[in-house]
């Protein structure tokens, strides 16, 4: 397959172009005020409800935009990716819109709700490796070569990042007085995209990454000044288990992000319960880490704050245990 390459970096113009592509596809999700949480932390807090997207997570933005750009360059017959769940669902959803085949390589430990989500949207699932590891990426690369499919990675890709960055544009339009944005972190696609928006339009805003204590790859990268690969990651927040942030994502986010905080499993569980009881939101643990960080005092913002609740695709049994 011969395709022209995507741009090498991501700019404000990239985000604005992505927003035009996503108009009518991705939901312009609401910012929901959280009065009880605001009272606890002493500043206004609003929740950016990305769990209301068509596939239940923010990943629809990056996947659809990347696929639209791929189709626009011509020659695409289908796509393949490695994903622990939400990116795979988003890519399958987008591929169906364009009439393309989508193959998603997932760990064997992926929650059934996410495997079923990929299949429900027409994607083909290939299980490889017991847990999140480099095995899924290697298998996806092999399938791309063998079956002449385009590889669209879950985060370290400029078109994916630009799509995710439209969240930053929306936050700045919806709540221009925002002083702090809290963002869940896996490979860094979401936080790097938001960083591009804030760097260009509101450089005084503090963007803080939140990750599980058992998967603190951004914390390690910021300390070292470059991406670090963790030997192992583990958390109920299955969408945040990348062992390293991406090379491009880190290059973009490091210009803005000065801090990452970690939350424990008990704190993540409390975040899920809080969103259920006080906001009526069915958030997956990966989406609840931002609220967990506020509840646990891991972040003490000095002004109006937006917490990005990134997804809601949670295993039903786990959810019942957490909120029961």
Count of helical stretches? 13
In whole angstroms, the N-to-C terminal distance is 51 Å
Overall pLDDT level: 95
At CATH's second level, what is the architecture of the largest domain?
3-Layer(aba) Sandwich
Provide the CATH topology of the largest domain: Rossmann fold
C-alpha Rg (nearest Å)? 18 Å
Report helical residue fraction.
40-55%
Written overview of the protein:
The model has no long low-confidence stretch (mean pLDDT 95). The chain folds into 2 domains: 12-58 and 157-323, Rossmann fold, CATH 3.40.50; 59-151, Rossmann fold, CATH 3.40.50.1100. The strands form 2 sheets. Strands 1-2-10-7-8-9 form a 6-stranded mixed β-sheet, sandwiched between helices. It has 324 residues and is of the alpha/beta class. It has helices spanning 12-22, 35-41, 59-73, 86-98, 112-120, 134-147, 158-174, 189-201, 217-224, 247-253, 265-278, 285-295, 316-323, and strands spanning 31-33, 45-49, 78-82, 101-106, 124-127, 150-151, 180-184, 206-212, 259-263, 305-309.
């Amino acid at each position: 397959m011969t395709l022209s390459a995507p741009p090498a970096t991501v700019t404000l113009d990239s985000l604005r172009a992505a927003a035009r592509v996503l108009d009518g596809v991705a939901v312009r999700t609401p910012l929901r005020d959280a009065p009880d949480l605001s009272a606890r932390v002493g500043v206004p807090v609003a929740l950016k409800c990305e769990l209301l997207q068509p596939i239940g997570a923010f990943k629809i933005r990056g996947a659809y935009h990347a696929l639209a750009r791929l189709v626009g360059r011509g020659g695409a017959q289908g796509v393949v990716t490695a994903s622990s769940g939400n990116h795979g669902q988003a890519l399958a959803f987008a591929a169906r819109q364009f009439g393309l085949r989508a193959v998603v390589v997932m760990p064997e430990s992926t929650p059934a709700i996410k495997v079923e989500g990929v299949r429900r949207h027409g994607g083909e699932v290939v299980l490889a490796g017991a847990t999140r590891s480099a095995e899924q990426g290697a298998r996806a690369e092999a399938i791309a070569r063998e079956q002449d499919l385009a590889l669209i990675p879950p985060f370290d890709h400029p078109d994916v990042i630009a799509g995710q960055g439209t969240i930053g544009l929306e936050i700045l339009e919806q709540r221009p007085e925002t002083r702090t944005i809290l963002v869940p972190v896996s490979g860094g696609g979401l936080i790097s995209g938001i960083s591009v928006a804030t760097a260009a339009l509101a450089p005084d805003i503090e963007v803080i990454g939140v990750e599980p204590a058992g998967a603190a790859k951004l914390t390690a990268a910021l300390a070292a000044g470059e991406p670090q690969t963790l030997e192992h990651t583990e958390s109920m927040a299955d969408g945040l288990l990348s062992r390293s942030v991406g090379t491009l994502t880190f290059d973009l986010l490091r210009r803005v992000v000065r801090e990452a905080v970690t939350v424990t499993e008990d704190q993540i569980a409390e975040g899920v319960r809080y969103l259920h009881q006080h906001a009526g939101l069915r958030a997956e643990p990966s989406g609840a880490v931002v609220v967990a960080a506020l509840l646990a005092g891991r972040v003490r913002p000095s002004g109006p704050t937006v917490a990005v609740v990134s997804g809601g695709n949670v295993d039903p049994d786990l959810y019942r245990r957490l909120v029961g």
